[in-house]
Design a protein that fits this description.
Blueprint (H helix, E strand, L loop, with lengths): L5 H5 L8 H19 L10 E4 L4 E3 L10 E4 L2 H18 L3 E9 L1 H4 L5 E9 L4 E7 L13 H14 L7 E7 L8 E5 L1 H24 L8 H4 L3 H4 L4 H11 L22 H27 L22 H10 L4 H4 L7 H9 L4 H11 L25 H4 L10
Parallel strand pairs: 6-7
Antiparallel strand pairs: 1-2, 1-3, 4-5, 5-6, 7-8
The structure holds iron/sulfur cluster.
Length: 406
């Protein structure tokens, strides 16, 4: 929606997945199995999930040669998925739950047979449509407010289910259990949804026109470029232009004697340089990734080659063999094993989420033993929603009246 030319520019670009994305897919699969089968995620502890382009499901059922990555349901995954599953069940009490619901979006995008898949759609008994999205990432917090992905799912769900029940309002929910125990919600009127639907139609028309006529109408922005394959693969001229404008220079070789440098003291201010940092960092990441991908694919990038990287950490070939050998060397228990008390996070997993009265009592008792440092100051743009960090001047400067002033 943000960049009409991106569809043309992304065409044919590889969809470079990541372990983070695959882990998220595995967690989504586990969540859907639990919601559909009405079981607790702990049922699947230690079971393995396969994630590939062609197949996502239990490892034991995977078709031969499906490739992809392998994920074991650990206690950590079980705990986070359980938080999400419990929340969805709570939303669905007294209503109807649809899990991994495919939703046609053709009426808005115009693409034949286009569909989205919503993690959970709920029709409550009192006419509310709830669209829930599980985000398994723990990096950036995603907000449901005017979230385009969820708004289009809600539109499609409204279209799909309005015959089943009288829907009068909608609620968009993002649950990111590794960041927030409780889901984030955004109530949304049907009028807002339909107005958004018109925006989608308009953006889709412009994008399709660009695509059909071969125009690259590029409109770079953080929101648009973030997930764009052209940007990630360092293929976008608009991003390159933005970068050269931001750093105020072209790709001149500054080691050459005729290189043009601004006089000392002129050129961009510190704030202007800071504003360019984010863009430069993303651009560097994209260029490094693209060069690596080219070399892995056997394509030459003049001046660069693949070499063996740094060795990994040493580990025992077989822990049981190592343990037996160490024992035979008569090592003391405290020499052989490293044991330390569990962290508050691990304790919370044991007591905090079980919800039974004795567990809650024990967890409450532990709470008084926990301390947590405040976050240190960090630089953010002025538009950031967090309040300004108040520096404690007394702590940051020496007492100028003292004799040992540095
Ligand atoms: S990187 Fe940004 S500007 Fe370039 S095509 Fe993608 S979304 Fe558009």
């Amino acid at each position: 929606m943000g960049c009409p030319g991106s569809i043309l520019l992304e065409k044919g670009e590889p969809d470079n997945g990541s372990d983070f994305a695959d882990e998220g897919t595995a967690a989504h699969f586990l969540a859907s199995e639990c919601l559909i089968g009405n079981v607790h995620p702990a049922t699947y502890l230690s079971r393995a999930i396969r994630v590939s382009d062609a197949y996502t499901g239990w490892e034991k059922d995977r078709p031969e040669g499906s490739g992809g990555t392998h994920w074991v349901v650990t206690a950590e995954m079980e705990s986070h998925v359980n938080t999400y599953v419990q929340a969805v069940r709570k939303y669905a009490e007294g209503g109807t739950l649809f899990v991994e619901q495919r939703l046609p979006i053709t009426p808005w995008t115009g693409e034949p047979d286009a569909c989205g898949t919503s993690d959970a759609v709920i029709l409550t008994g009192d006419g509310e449509l709830i669209v829930v999205d599980l985000k398994y990432g723990m990096g950036e917090q995603v907000s449901p407010e005017r979230n385009k992905q969820l708004m289009i799912y809600a539109l499609a769900a409204h279209e799909e289910f309005s015959l089943v029940g009288d829907i009068t309002s909608a609620r968009l929910v993002i649950h990111q259990p590794r960041v927030h125990h409780a889901p984030l919600e955004w109530p949304c009127s049907l009028d807002e949804l339909h107005a958004f639907g018109e925006e989608v139609k308009m953006a889709a028309r412009v994008a399709v026109e660009c695509y059909n006529e071969g125009h690259e109408v590029l409109a770079p922005s953080d929101a648009a470029c973030r997930w764009c394959k052209a940007g990630k693969n360092a293929k976008c001229p608009a991003r390159d232009k933005q970068l050269t404008e931001a750093i105020g220079a072209d790709f001149d070789d500054l080691t050459k004697p005729d290189a043009q440098l601004p006089p000392v003291g002129e050129g961009p201010t510190l704030a202007q340089k800071m504003a360019a940092c984010d863009l430069i960092e993303k651009w560097i990441k994209a260029v490094r990734g693209k060069v690596e991908a080219e070399l892995f694919a056997g394509n030459a990038v003049p001046g660069y080659k693949l070499v063996q990287g740094k060795k990994g950490n040493r580990q025992w070939l077989d822990e049981a063999d190592a343990e037996a050998t160490l024992k035979s060397m008569r090592l003391k228990v405290e020499e052989m094993y490293s044991m330390k008390v569990i962290s508050p996070t691990s304790a919370e997993k044991i007591f905090g989420e079980k919800g039974t009265a004795p567990s809650v009592k024990r967890w409450n008792k532990l709470q008084s033993l926990i301390t947590q440092k405040d976050g240190g100051p960090s630089v953010a743009p002025e538009s950031d929603k967090r309040p300004v960090y108040v520096l404690n001047v007394a702590e940051n400067f020496d007492d100028e009246t003292g004799s040992d002033m540095a």
